[in-house]
Amino acid sequence: MSKKLPLHTVILIGLVLGIVWGVIAANLGWAQQNSWYIAPIGKIFVNLLKLIAIPMIITSLVVGVSSLNNINKLGRIGGSTLGIFVATTVVAVTIGLLLATVIRPGDALSEETKNS
Questions:
Q1: What is the Cα–Cα distance from 89 to 83, expressed in whole angstroms?
Q2: What is d(CA 98, CA 95) in angstroms, rounded to the nearest whole number?
Q3: Can you spell out the DSSP letters for 71-84?
Q4: What is the pLDDT along the chain (116 residues), one digit of tens a residue?
Q5: Residue 34: exposed, middle, or buried by beta-carbon count in 10 A (0-12, 13-18, 19+)?
Q6: Contact 25, 34 (CB under 8 A)
Q7: What is the pTM of this model?
Q8: Are the C-beta atoms of residues 74 and 65 closer than 8 Å to each other?
Q9: Within its chain, how far is the Cα of 7 from the centroid?
């Protein structure tokens, strides 16, 4: 009997394989070939994620609001939701800017890579 792997295990295996492939390709000089064949697949995937994000958020908001029994709770829930959104956005932007300033990820790249 074959046992199906859990989704999180498959995702982690894919992540490790991607890292291994990236290290091998970088060391063997296959960066250009990777950008020709693999980058379009990544762009399509990211565009599909963008395509599904907005309808999913709108649908979840409509379902959430329509399931409220007491409409008076909507203002309080909306205010707290907006507050949590703003707070988490500020924290995420702060962490991102701090890490980018400290680590400076683009410094290791050559000028030719930066310009291409």
A1: 10
A2: 5
A3: TTHHHHHHHHHHHH
A4: 568 999 999 999 999 999 999 889 888 888 888 888 888 898 999 999 999 998 998 898 888 878 877 777 777 887 888 899 999 999 999 999 999 999 988 888 888 877 87
A5: middle
A6: yes
A7: 0.47
A8: yes
A9: 17
Helix (H) or strand (E) segment spanning residue 34 = helix 31-37
Per the CB < 8 A criterion, the answer to whether 114 and 106 are in contact is yes
Both tokens of 67, joined, read 């399931």
Identity of the residue numbered 66 = S
**Non-local CB neighbours of 34 within 8 Å, separated by 6+ positions:** 22, 25
Distance CA 96, CA 102 (A): 10
What pLDDT does 15 receive? 95
Q: CB burial class (10 A; 0-12, 13-18, 19+) of residue 25?
A: middle
Query: Which residue do the tokens 């990211």 mark?
Result: 46
- Sign of the alpha-carbon dihedral angle for 41, 55, 8, 85: positive
- Nearest-angstrom CA–CA distance, 29 and 25: 6
